[in-house]
Structures are given as C-alpha cells and as structure tokens.
Amino acid sequence: MAVERFIQGDRNARMKLDKAPWGPEKLLKLGGTHISWLVIALLTGGAWVFYFADAPTLARQIVSGTAPFAAYATIALLTFTTYALAGLMREQVCTYMCPWPRIQSAMLDEDSFIVTYKAWRGEPRGSVKTAATGTSGAGTSGDCVDCMACVNVCPTGIDIRNGPQLECITCALCIDACNDTMEKIGRPLDLIGYTTLKRDVAESRGQPLTAMWKVVLRPRVLLYLALWSAIGLFMLVVLAGRERMDISVSQDRNPIYVMMSNGDIRNGFTVKLLNKEARPRDFVLTVEGLPGATIVDPLRPDKPAAQVMIRARPDGVETQKIQVRAPASAVTAENMDISFVIRPKDGDGRVETDTRFTGPVHSGSAS
Ligand code: SF4
Ligand code: SF4
User: Fold this and answer.
1) Atom 7 in ligand 1: residue holding the nearest Cα
2) Which residue in 13, 178, 268, 327 has its CB near the most CB atoms, within 10 A?
3) Which ligand has the minimum distance to the alpha carbon of residue 154?
4) For 245-358, which CATH class?
C-alpha cells in the first residue's frame, strides 16, 4: 500500500487514475506499481528459498544459471504467491484466510479493549454544518459528520460504525483518522477509540467507569497470559537446546572404491559441516563402525589419522572432501554401514550421520 501511495498518490488520486482512460501516465504508474510489487515479492517471498539451502552457494548458482530447477520453481512460486496475496488480494487474506480473527473473537469478552465507535456520541450522523448546530451526543446531531475518513483508511474496508466486526485487525487507523476530523470540527477526540463494551455502556449512561486495573487483571487475562507465556517459554527452551552443529555426508561414486597397493580399501566422501553459531568453530570428525579405519585429508594425504579437525566459519557450511581408508580385513561386506561423527573441539555434544563404505564384492555377500 505504501508503494501504491508513493507511485499513484492518495486514495482520491488513485480513484481518479482508475477511472482515467489508458494513456502513458496510467500505464507508467500502474506498471511501476506492479513491477515494484514483484520486486518486493521476489526479495521477501522468493528469497525464502535460501532458508532451505546453503544461501551463498545457492545465490552463486542462481546468478550463474546453474541452480537446480527446483530452486527456480520455488522462487517463482513464492514470488507469485507473495505478489498475489499481498498485492492483489490484501484484505481478502485477512478476512477469509487468516485464522487470527477467529481466534481473537473467541478470546474477547465484554471487558476486552477493542476499537469501538461510540454510537451514543456519534449518532445521529450529519454534515459538518448540522453538526455545528448540535452538541456532543445530546443535541439534534451527533459528533459523526459522516466524512467516511474511518472507512477510507480501513485496510480491511469495513465501517467500524456498524459495530465490532470479525474483519477488524485492530490496527487503529480509523481512530487516528476520526481524531483528525474531530480536531478539525472542534469536537472531543476519541469518537472512535479503545474501550470495552461495558465501559462504553457505562460512559454513555454517565456512570462511573470500572478501575483500569480491575479490567486488566481479570482471571481470563491472567489465564491467557499464563498460557501464552508457557508456549513462549517452551519455544525458548527448544531454541536454546537445539543442536548448534550438523553434518551431512555423500559418498563419491566415481570411483566407488579404490584398492590400495597394500590391500587397504579407500572410499571418497564429501562432508558438509554446518556451524550454527556466530563464531568460527573447530570440529573433530571421526568415523565409527569400521575397525581400523583412518581418515585422509586430501591436503595432508601422507598423514591418515583416526580423526581430523575441521574449522567451520560462523553461521556457515564447510564443505570438505575426505577419504576413509580401511584394512581389507575390516571390510567384510560389499556395503558396510558406517557413521560420521562430529564433536565440537571446545564443548560437549555430538552429531552423527549414517552412510555406507563400499568394498569389493565378497563371495556370498548380497550385491
Ligand atoms: S481498527 Fe483498523 S481494521 Fe479495525 S475498523 Fe479500524 S481501521 Fe479498520
Ligand atoms: S471518521 Fe469519525 S466523523 Fe468521520 S465518518 Fe468516521 S466516525 Fe464519523
């Protein structure tokens, strides 16, 4: 809406543009709006694709045109849905698709603060001229001058003067719009304001209002607070306890194994190590399930070891080619189940992933 306002102007200008015949100005303004929406949709919706992959690698692949088809298709889908939902459908999403209004209306009661039009003050409506002859809610004309400012600013397009409605997202834009009008015609503010149904009735009858703390500190409010806090706390605990590292391994297929001159068998693997902390970390990588296996770092091929150290950059994925070498006596089947395990050098915890180590076909083994 901000883009639309910036390019096409305020509501009146937009309505004028809608009615105007097609010409260069209309084409430019409408085209500019839709192109801007698509760019925003690409940067917000389409960019979600980076959530599912190693973002820098995928960005490079996208720019060079070598990304998988699924990445382009997902970007197109997310961009289009963002453009359609936020640009074209807008309040229809709030009204028909969003579950929040239903949850909200189930949680409200007559003591809940909601955006309310004070009908006892505003009615009967009249023009600014007739309003000048009345007094605030008690004369021939109420405070509402039917300027429609509250309806025009409402993002869901409702008229709050018809009472509380499901579509209201409590954005309070109508409160500000109406207060502007009240200021201009010299009437008290808050003809539309935050109040409870009970307080509204009491105010209309001139009765004393319930103390604010009694409205806020009700068992219902405290129960909701406790429930939402418990959910928030649970999410925080899960977040704090999540693993801050991950590993994935894929076996090199060509060649699938190499027989060394001394009879040892060697397999190649690509290890991807994910560091989820905002600092560089060292991880110890080991292999389990293959007695006597050693890991060969291609950068130090002369020093096979039971474990290798891998340094991972902050919030990044470290990709490393390694080789695992095992004595022939340990490779008792064509496919051996093995696990790659990482442990942080300076802390506790371990994460492992399973894969296979391939050797020559053994007589009697399943192939
Ligand atoms: S609070 Fe927002 S959504 Fe609700 S009626 Fe007012 S402008 Fe419309
Ligand atoms: S903005 Fe206020 S005065 Fe204008 S129509 Fe709405 S309620 Fe009435």
Assistant:
1) 154
2) 178
3) 1
4) mainly beta
Residue nearest to atom 4 of ligand 2 (CA): 147
What is the full DSSP assignment across 304-345? -BSEEEEEE-TTEEEEEEEEEEE-GGG--SSEEEEEEEEEET
**Ligand 2 contact, 177 CB (< 6 A):** yes
Q: Taking the chain, what is the end-to-end CA distance rounded to the nearest angstrom?
A: 63
Q: Which of 326, 328, 353 is nearest to 342 (CA)?
A: 353
Which ligand gives the minimal distance to the CA of 180? 2
Helices (H), 50-115: 55-64, 69-82, 91-92, 100-107
- The ranges of the chain annotated as CATH 2.60.40.10 are 245-358
**171 in contact with ligand 1, CB cutoff 6 A:** yes
Query: What distance in Å separates the CA atoms of residue 345 and residue 310, rounded to the nearest whole number?
Result: 10
Query: Locate tokens 């009437």: which residue?
Result: 187
Does the beta carbon of 267 sit less than 6 angstroms from any atom of ligand 2? no
Q: For residue 150, how far is its CA from the centre of ligand 2 (angstroms)? A: 6
CB atoms within 10 A of CB 133: 10
DSSP per-residue letters across 271-297:
EEEEE-SSS-EEEEEEEESSTT-EEE-
| Global pTM value | 0.59
Q: Chunked in runs of 10, what are the mean pLDDT values of the chain (367 residues)?
A: 90 88 93 96 90 84 90 94 92 83 84 92 80 55 90 90 88 95 92 92 90 88 94 94 89 90 92 91 93 85 85 89 92 92 89 93 53
Distance CA 283, CA 275 (A): 9
26-62: per-residue pLDDT in tens? 999 999 999 999 999 999 988 889 888 778 888 999 9
Atom of ligand 2 at shortest range from CA of 125:
8
